Structures are given as C-alpha cells and as structure tokens.
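Progress note, sequence design subtask.
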C-alpha cells in the first residue's frame, strides 16, 4: 500500500483542530484501479470505513502478519489526525482447514476451538506489544454463521452459486463477467481459484468447473462434529472467502471505502471476496 499525504499536519497536539488537515489531502494506491487516487469516502462524509483481513489463527504471528496491522494502524491514525471518524473492522478467522488439521495433528490432539483461541491470544498480545490500536470491531468467523448461510442463499437465489452432490456449495466464477479484474488475470489462464490449503478431493469432486470455489464445505466424518453447522443444503462449514465477505457486509454495509490485507491475499482471497 502506498500512502502519499500531500500536506503534513502542523506541529500541534492531536486534539488541536487547527492542526488538522482535510482527508482529501490523502492519496492511496488503489490496487483495483492500479493507480494512486484521492481518498473519497463513499457513504458518510467524515466517516472512513475500512475492512482489514485479519489473522487466521492457526499458529503464532510473524512479522508479515504484524506488518499489515501496523500499516493500517498508521493509516487510521493519520485519518483521525485529519479529523475523520474511522470505522476499522479487523476479523479473526477461527474456523479453517489449517486450524482443523493442525489441531488434530498436535500431540496430544487439541480441540480446534481451543487451538484457535490460543493463537488469537498470541496475536492480540503481539498487536498490543507493537502499539497497534484495537479495531472498532474484531468479529470472529464462528460468530457469524447465520449471516454466512444467508449470504450463500442469496448467491444461490441470484444464480451465482450451486449445490454439489455431496452438499458442497460453489461460486460459479463464470457467472461474474469481471472475475479476475482485481488481479488482472484471465479466467481461461487459471487452473484453480482456490488456495492450495483449501484443496482436497472431497471439495473438488463435484465442481462443475475446477475454477469454481467453495462457499460452503460439507461436513466430513474425519472432522470434529462441532466444526459443522446446519444449513438448508446440508451440514457443513463456511468457505474462507465467504467469511470475510459476510463480516465486511455485516459491519460496514454493501459499500465501504477501503479493503486491505497482506499482498499475498490478493489472489485468490481478495479476488474471491
């Protein structure tokens, strides 16, 4: 992310209104437009809304995780220094293929939810040690399963998704003409739109197109029974990309100003969101 403020604030205290500058003085690199553009809040004047893809709490935090948190903490502080209100959502992904596999492989095995909580606490301690301010809200994926089911149904009703024979639900990437535009890729050049950690025979078996991605994963007998939830198309758990789409919509609405995260998440995660 490139931040280019065109005018620094005067050397006064953070509460001195004379020291504030207007938010339009801030220009950001927009990775979708591939250009540096002025920040222009889309919904409410004076309010900047940000969704930051947070941690998948599968293991201990490292410097890459913290870099993202610090970068957007700096952005938030600058905006507030400019007199803007900032609503920053940074999620916690606490149900995921990696969490399930790593908790099961531990010696002795650990319940998946306990594994996730352990590393969520480590992330929280790391943020605090580095002086990163707490987000406005920090939702957990497991706290929003009903909204995720509603979003899957919305996509099914709109013809953007379909249910496979085994109860998996997939997003039909060909139903979205602009798919690939965020990362400047052509669909015909892609072999898959899933992250490598999300690929397995059970999920790939009933796709109509190998480039479709999972919105809902059917429950497996090899996974803990409490790592699945009832849904109209069958018991299972949400796919990774659906989780962030649901939480951003829940806390920021259909439209918000800035979506952020590590650059390694641009494809497939941000593209699929």
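Output:
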């Amino acid at each position: 992310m490139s931040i280019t403020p065109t005018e620094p604030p005067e050397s006064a205290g953070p509460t001195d209104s004379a020291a504030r500058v207007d938010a339009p003085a801030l220009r950001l690199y927009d990775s979708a437009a591939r250009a540096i553009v002025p920040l222009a809040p889309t919904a409410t004047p004076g309010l900047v809304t940000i969704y930051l893809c947070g941690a998948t709490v599968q293991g201990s935090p490292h410097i890459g995780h913290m870099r993202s948190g610090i970068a957007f903490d700096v952005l938030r502080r600058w905006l507030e220094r400019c007199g803007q209100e900032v609503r920053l959502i940074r999620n916690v992904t606490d149900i995921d293929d990696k969490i399930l596999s790593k908790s099961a492989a531990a010696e002795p095995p650990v319940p998946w939810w306990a594994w996730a909580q352990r590393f969520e606490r480590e992330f929280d301690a790391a943020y605090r040690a580095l002086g990163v301010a707490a987000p406005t809200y920090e939702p957990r994926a497991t706290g929003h399963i009903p909204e995720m089911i509603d979003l899957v149904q919305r996509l099914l009703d709109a013809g953007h998704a379909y249910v496979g024979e085994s109860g998996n639900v997939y997003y039909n990437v060909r139903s979205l003409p602009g798919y690939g535009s965020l990362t400047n890729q052509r669909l015909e050049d892609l072999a898959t739109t899933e992250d490598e950690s999300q690929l397995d025979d059970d999920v790939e078996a009933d796709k109509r197109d190998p480039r479709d991605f999972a919105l809902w994963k059917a429950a497996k007998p090899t996974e803990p029974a409490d790592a699945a939830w009832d849904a109209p198309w069958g018991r299972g758990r949400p796919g990774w990309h659906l989780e962030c789409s649901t939480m951003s919509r829940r806390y920021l609405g259909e439209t918000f100003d800035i979506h952020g995260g590590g650059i390694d998440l641009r494809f497939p995660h941000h593209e699929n969101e």
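Residues 1-21 have pLDDT under 50 and may be disordered. Work on this subtask will continue into the next period as scheduled.
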